[in-house]
Design brief:
α2 packs antiparallel against α9, α5 packs across α6 and α8 crosses α9. Helices cover about 60% and strands about 0% of the residues. The two termini are about 35 Å apart. It has two domains: about 90 residues; about 110 residues, Endonuclease III, domain 1 (Orthogonal Bundle). The protein is built from twelve helices and no strands. It is mainly α. It binds a DNA duplex through α2, α3, α6, α9 and α12.
DNA sequence: ACCCAGGGTCATA
DNA sequence: TATGACCATGGG
């Protein structure tokens, strides 16, 4: 297996934090719901919203679609942007049902599935890739602001690359690796873990695997 | 009181 | 194509 800055980052983070076993959800559909709800939102708030949906028996596409949008919005209120996200959840559920739910969608090729997801209003690149990787186990790397930040700080990237460009760069680094899905799964999760559990609380991560490379905050 | 969080869309130039 | 406004709750 090739050694490059990305495989090294994966190794360093994995050794320090251990396997993350993402996505924190019960099944593919719940992954999809979480992917929409977590848009620009702290995960803790998403958990509350999902708990509300669960308690209301609304953690299924039919249930969500049968709910008045206003009622749906009320349930997901803790996750913020609740009016917009209620509409986005509905869009996603409609799309999901129209294409034969999980069984139907699983048969699509990754590229087609990605394009179709991006066609849903409210599903952008990152949300689509969350769903592809964590709900459909496709070898797609999720680029988020943390990834951009860390790679930029490590000097691996410029920082102003477009989403597609970055994604393909990351995926190329693991080209031919039969464990790509598993590695992409872990690396994205580890990057988020690293950002959440360590660097946000301290300017310099004491004992963190990125050491002095890891500087959060401005500049 | 301020800042940010596991983004995305839409209107404008 | 490239900015800017907007969406909104909750924790540090």
């Amino acid at each position: 297996m090739a050694s490059n800055p990305y495989t090294q980052l994966h190794r360093r983070l994995l050794q320090h934090y251990g396997p993350q076993q993402w996505w924190p959800a019960d099944g593919p559909f719940e992954v999809m719901v979480g992917a929409v709800l977590t848009q620009n939102t702290a995960w803790g708030n998403v958990e509350k919203a999902i708990a509300n949906l669960q308690a209301a028996g609304a953690l299924a596409p039919e249930a969500i679609l049968s709910l008045p949008e206003e009622a749906l919005a009320a349930l997901i209120r803790p996750s913020g942007y609740f009016n917009i996200k209620a509409r986005r959840l509905r869009n996603l559920c409609q799309w999901y049902q129209q294409h034969g739910a999980l069984a139907g969608l699983q048969q699509w090729e990754t590229t087609s599935l990605r394009q179709a997801l991006l066609g849903v209003n409210g599903v952008g690149p990152e949300t689509a890739d969350d769903i592809l990787l964590y709900a459909f186990a496709r070898p797609v790397f999720v680029i988020d602001s943390y990834t951009r930040r860390i790679l930029s700080r490590l000097g691996v990237i410029q920082g102003d690359e477009g989403y597609e460009s970055l994604r393909q760069q990351l995926e190329a680094a693991f080209e031919g690796d039969s464990q790509a899905v598993s590695i992409f799964n872990e690396l994205h999760a580890l990057i988020v873990m690293h950002a959440k559990e360590h660097c946000r609380k301290r300017p310099y991560c004491e004992g963190c695997p990125l050491r002095s490379d890891c500087v959060y905050g401005d500049q």
